[in-house]
Design a protein that fits this description.
The protein is α/β, with parallel strands linked by helices. It is built from 18 helices and 17 strands. β14, α15 and β15 form a beta-alpha-beta unit. α4 runs parallel beside α8. The chain is globular. The C terminus is likely disordered.
Length: 474
């Protein structure tokens, strides 16, 4: 009789991690001894492939799942639903501290109950994986339940943490220790939980959590050891995409023993695509009529409008100007990649008017064909892996620079220099050669070998030793 497979729960609670965890699930299913279980909220069900890869299971966290999990699970769901209704009433009354406390407390309690009554964490559970172990929603409750049962927990980070770029907290007085409201409570929190305080750019003290969130996490015993960084939460281990990210985590207080440099699951796909550059470019030439003798520019259109950081009118005007600028630089050999949040219908007329094409395939599947990548996006890291020189659009004046001093990246800090910088980067000259040399030197910093998922699976199978993840103030 064959041995039962142990479950690996992949918490797909954030849109960007779904594709990463689906790729990992396929590799886990192929092991024969591990069974991946994709756990996702109903709102992200459209991103889960149907049918699932052979050997994988999916569990929605919606009402139907709780109802069919048994009477106790259904009763707990109804209790949590009532609490969420109460949260809505408190929010309508503008009782922010009470709202934050109850909303956070309920989410973590619901996660604990989900782990126990729906996921049935126990002896057949090998691991729980999440995108960020600082999530203060239901994922935190699942992690807490897993740790209590001795189930290994791993945060698979797909980005890099830099508190200086946290414009959201800087812009809100609710996080300022010396700002209204609740100054005295925030002062007490800063004294009791110094890990959650840092100096912001104007010298003032800033909290990571609002008071209600802090009190709820403390009530659950789930405060974080290093809240300002990926991996600073409650998971046993955190995997990062490269050595630079690992160094950044160490500087922000995450213990070295907790960090593993594994890469990113989608990098395995990029690595495979990097071996198929010629065929990808040929396919794009055929589909869009590009001149095969001339270089190709791919522009990842910024998503400030879709993220609520600019008006729709401003976003469309910026898109039109970028299309026009790229056309001037590379002629018709320009391909526009839209973010999943962007509606193609909104940009088709603009692209047609400027004589550029919009890709129908995901950026990951076409990027290897580019000779120049222009973006204001973390996907610049993909181009760096592929050895493609980049121009970062950094003139949006958000109070920080994302790509300064990045290898292989030229930074356009004003609109006026963007066109000339792209042209210089595209030409076969000294400037482009220096960027290519930087990319080659930096490649040793990143594991790019098609074996990321293999490393993550090895970490799941390794005997786990829990790291210093939680802070107890009891």
């Amino acid at each position: 009789m064959s041995q039962e497979r142990r479950h690996v729960y992949l918490l797909c609670s954030r849109r960007p991690i779904v594709d990463e965890f689906v790729l990992l699930a396929q590799a886990l299913a192929d092991t024969g001894d591990l069974e991946p279980v994709l756990v996702f909220p109903p709102g992200l069900s459209a991103l889960i492939p149907s049918p699932l890869p052979a050997g994988c299971r999916g569990i929605s966290t919606g009402m139907k799942t709780w109802r069919t999990a048994g009477p106790r699970a259904w009763c707990m769901y109804l209790v949590f639903a009532c609490l969420r209704r109460l949260v809505m009433l408190l929010r309508a009354c503008r009782m922010r501290l009470a709202t934050d406390f109850l909303e956070t407390w309920e989410a973590i309690a619901r996660g604990r109950s989900l782990a126990r009554h729906v996921l049935h964490l126990g002896v057949r559970s090998a691991a729980v994986l999440t995108a960020d172990d600082r999530d203060i929603r239901s994922d935190q409750g699942v992690i807490a339940a897993a740790r209590r049962l001795g189930v290994f927990t791993l945060a698979v980070s797909f980005g890099k943490s830099d508190p200086t770029t946290d414009a959201f907290r800087r812009a809100s007085s609710e996080y300022g220790v010396n700002s209204a409201p609740w100054r005295w409570i925030k002062s007490k929190i800063a004294q009791a939980y110094p890990q959650g305080v840092r100096k912001n750019t104007d010298g003032g003290e800033q909290l990571f959590f609002r008071p209600g969130e802090y009190l709820a996490l403390r009530a659950h015993g789930s405060l974080f050891a290093a809240p300002w960084s990926y991996g600073g939460g409650t998971a046993d281990r955190v995997s990062v995409i490269d050595r630079e990210a690992a160094s950044m985590l160490h500087k922000l207080g995450v213990s070295a023993e907790k960090v593993r440099v594994a890469g990113q699951c989608s990098h395995d796909v990029l690595w495979l695509l990097s071996t198929q550059r010629a065929s990808i470019r040929t396919g794009l030439n055929t589909e869009f009529g590009f001149d095969p003798a001339k270089p190709l520019v791919i522009l990842a259109l910024p998503v400030l409008g879709e993220h609520g950081m600019s008006s729709t009118q401003t976003q469309l005007a910026e898109a039109s100007w970028l299309f026009q600028t790229m056309r001037r630089v590379a002629g018709p050999n320009v391909l526009i990649s839209l973010h999943p949040r962007q509606n193609r219908v909104h940009y088709e007329k603009l692209a047609s008017a400027q004589g550029v094409k919009i890709a129908g395939s995901p950026l990951r599947d076409i990027l290897a064909a580019a000779d120049l990548f222009v973006a204001y996006s973390s996907t610049i890291s993909w181009a760096q892996l592929l050895g493609i020189p980049c121009v970062a659009i950094e003139y949006y004046e958000l109070g920080y620079a994302l790509f300064a001093n990045q290898p292989g990246v030229a930074v356009a800090s004003t609109r006026e220099v963007l066109g000339d910088m792209c042209a210089s980067t595209l030409e076969s000259g000294e400037f482009r050669s220096s960027l290519v040399a930087q990319l080659k030197a930096a490649s040793e910093n990143v594991p790019f070998d098609g074996r990321v998922r293999e490393r993550l699976i090895a970490e799941i199978r390794a005997p786990s030793q829990k790291g210093p993840s939680c802070v107890s103030l009891v």
